[in-house]
Amino acid sequence: MSEPPDKIDEMLSGGRLGRPAQERVLGRVLAALDTPARASRRKRVLTIASGAGLLAAVAAVVLLFVGRSSPPPGSDQTAKGGARSVAAAIEPVCQSGTAACRAGERLFFRADASESRRWLAIFAERTDETPARRIWMFPGPDGVAPEVPPVPEAAVLPRAVELGAGLGPGLYRLTILVFNHPPTRDEAASGSAASLRLFRALEIY
Amino acid sequence: MGSAVEGNRELWEQFRRGERSALERIYWEYVERVDRLVRRLLHLHGGTRLVAAANVEDLVQDSFTRAFSPAARGAYDGIRDYGPYLLTIARNTVADALRLQQREVLAGGAEIAAWMALEDVAPAEEPASWIDSVTLARVRDYLSRLPIDLQSVHHRRYVLDEAQDVAAEALGMSRQRIRTLEKKLRLGLVRELKRTRAPNASPRIASSSVLKRT
To answer: Which residue of B186, B208, B212 is the best one to mutate when testing the A interface, meaning the one whose CB has the most A CBs within 10 A?
Structure first.
């Protein structure tokens, strides 16, 4: 099923949310309240910034990104799924260390501490397109979704996205879906099996 | 505004402490209004097309996530009605989303108050107005041809808005069976929309997020 479940539910409910969607929303709202505060996440990032090499450099980028970007709706602390406190945010991190990414550079993702293995599906949508076309980052053309291993502290994932053709300059909304198993593209497209759904803003210049 | 929860001091104390039962009760009290306001604002600023393209579910979710955050709960004094407070947060959520699309949001506190007064009398518009008439006809046709068990589940869950356990008891089914039938309902509609999609569909239909998203 490639259509978003929310629109199908809305059609079945005569054009409003309807009970199944309302229940889904409530579950995500309550789950979002369980996620740790932004402040504690920043503290953990500071901790990893004392590490060496790329990890430290990218952690500094995270601080810059989090501190400078103005969070648009649904892109700040709004966790979107059934996350408990150990399964929190995934943050995009530009390779260059600026709040916005330069076209052609690489985009990394930083994952908060987690006690269990998780897998990511990520797509971008231009905010000036209606309806917006989904530009898939993960699973990639090889169908592989990156794994987030269990780690005690925030860590930057080794797999990055080249911001090349198809991701030209502009403002994007990233949808980050977190799964408890490696998702297929169909599962990722439906999003219904995701345990967590996050939205982040991404500016490419 | 005549809400059943306004004036319930104990409930609001629990709400401010973030007790889950209170949050759930407040949510169920207001979710319909937030849903309607979000659609109304989207409609005002972009017509039915914007309502169709927007993810209303996400906007409703973001509104409640903001409203239920410790800071927003703490900022509510418990004296004024909660409805206007919550709907202002919902309005700001939609405004932020529209701003990302370079659309200005004009409706402010006075407009929301006027809208709420009208809403107490009658809903502002037909909720299904964002669905184009061809798709709406297909949905209705699909529903009319459902077998009786699926029709019953649709009626209980999508028309009467019953909780799963309530619907299960009323229909003499397990909750698992209800879940299975709901999934069947959704998949059936997706297939029906794909099957009946006309090759020369109108631009409005072709641009529907439901039909175009990959």
So the answer is: B186
List chain A residues with CB under 8 Å of B24.
Answer: 26, 30
E strand or H helix that includes residue A118: strand A118-126
Residue A151 backbone dihedrals phi, psi, to 5 degrees: -135, 145
Q: ipTM, 2 decimals?
A: 0.80
Q: What is the pLDDT of residues A27-85, one digit of tens each?
A: 888 887 765 444 344 334 333 333 333 443 443 333 333 333 333 333 333 333 333 33
Question: Which chain A residue has the Cα nearest residue B34?
Answer: A17
Whether the Cβ atoms of residue A25 and residue B31 lie closer than 8 Å to each other:
yes
- What's the CATH number of domain A5-204, 3.30.70, 3.30.390, 2.70.50, 1.10.860? 2.70.50
Contact A10 B56 (CB under 8 A): yes
Q: Do residue B97 and residue A16 have CB atoms under 8 angstroms apart?
A: no
Nearest to A19 among B69, B131, B161 (CB): B161
Q: Most A CBs within 10 Å: which of B26, B57, B160, B178, as the mutation test of the A interface?
A: B57
Nearest to A1 among B161, B164, B187 (CB): B187
Q: Give Cβ neighbours of residue A76 (< 8 Å, ≥ 6 apart).
A: A38
Domain boundary among B81, B99, B123: B123
CB contact under 8 Å between A4 and B58, yes or no, is no
pTM: 0.56
Residues 6+ apart with CB under 8 A from A183: A119, A121, A139, A145, A177, A193, A194
Domain of B145, in residue numbers? 131-212
Same domain flag for B118 and B26: yes
Confidence of residue A10 (pLDDT cuts 50, 70, 90): confident
Would you call B124 an interface residue with chain A, using a CB distance cutoff of 8 Å?
no
Phi-psi region at B81: left, alpha or beta (left = phi > 0; alpha = psi -120 to 50): beta
